Amino acid sequence: MPESQIDFYLINFFHLVMMNQFWNMNVCSEVNFVKSMIRSMHDTRKPDELKQRQKWLDDVEEIWVKTNEKINTRLTVIEIAYNKNVMKGFNKMIEIDDNDGKSNEYNTALLYDHLKVAESKLVSIVVTIASYYKLVIPVQSSRGGLGSGFALKPGVA
Fold first, then answer.
1. How far is the C-alpha of 117 from the C-alpha of 143, rounded, in Å?
2. Is 154 part of a structural domain of the chain?
3. 152 lies in a domain?
4. Cα dihedral sign for 35, 130, 56, 99?
5. Domain span at residue 82?
6. For the segment 11-69, what is each residue's pLDDT rounded down to a tens digit?
7. Does the global pTM surpass 0.70?
């Protein structure tokens, strides 16, 4: 049943979002969970639903290839550069080639900002999908774990 698969991807996506720390961003894995979530949706013959699903996939692919409107570089390049250099300070300058072959310098604080913008777009897509299926979005409990309307195993929570 697709709802159980979507629940699985939803829980794991938000687990990654909530566990991201400024010293270790993991947005590439979030992209993969969103792609898997979209692909596990019900098969439909309705043209509007097919167009919407393709739009979500295109939006996620654009994040993967271009990160966001301000930086034209693959998400993997930004995430690796950020994670490799964040402990050297937020002012550490990093030279990165974009998809057009131009080289630009960014500090780690700006790379963090680009990763958070990409992540917020992914969260928006996932919340829309969850509302479509009327799924409960996990919330962070006061103890730091995930809480939701369904029973989470201690390893996930």
1. 27
2. no
3. no
4. negative
5. 2-147
6. 888 888 888 887 889 999 999 999 989 988 877 778 888 899 999 999 999 999 998 88
7. yes
